[in-house]
Fold this protein.
Amino acid sequence: MLRIQDLMQSGVATVRTNLPVMALEQLLVREGISGMPVVDDGELRGVVSRTDIVRALASAEGNAEATLAYYHEVAGALPGPSAAPHMASERIATLTVRDIMTRELIAVAGDQPVREVAQTMVSRGVHRVLVTAERRLLGIVTTLDLVRAIADGRLSE
């Protein structure tokens, strides 16, 4: 039976709680990922993703305009000028990872069966789970890792 440790990525890049959100976004772009575990003083504190960035901006601005502004200003996904990107960059400049991270950890043990972990991801609506031992980060498993295992024929069901 395939265990989650067989699929996990080890040596995972992490961020600290005091990292500015603008620096976080640059790191996510450079690494080609959408989220990262948050670790301070060797202890796992949470996880942060682009979804957290967008949620914080939309909450602060009170509307979806902030979400559009974020993608235009930071991610460069929307073409054309807008007044909203300026508001978004002011808000982003004041935030740190601590302000936006998800503190509730969805962590699994390395010896858990892949099927159980996949069910957890589906039921919790998450795209990544942390593989831990006593709040120490061992690795991470993402939905892409599961899809890769299916494509490679390592998962038979």
Q: What stands out?
A: The radius of gyration is 17 Å. The longest strand covers residues 43-49. The first helix runs from residue 21 to 31.
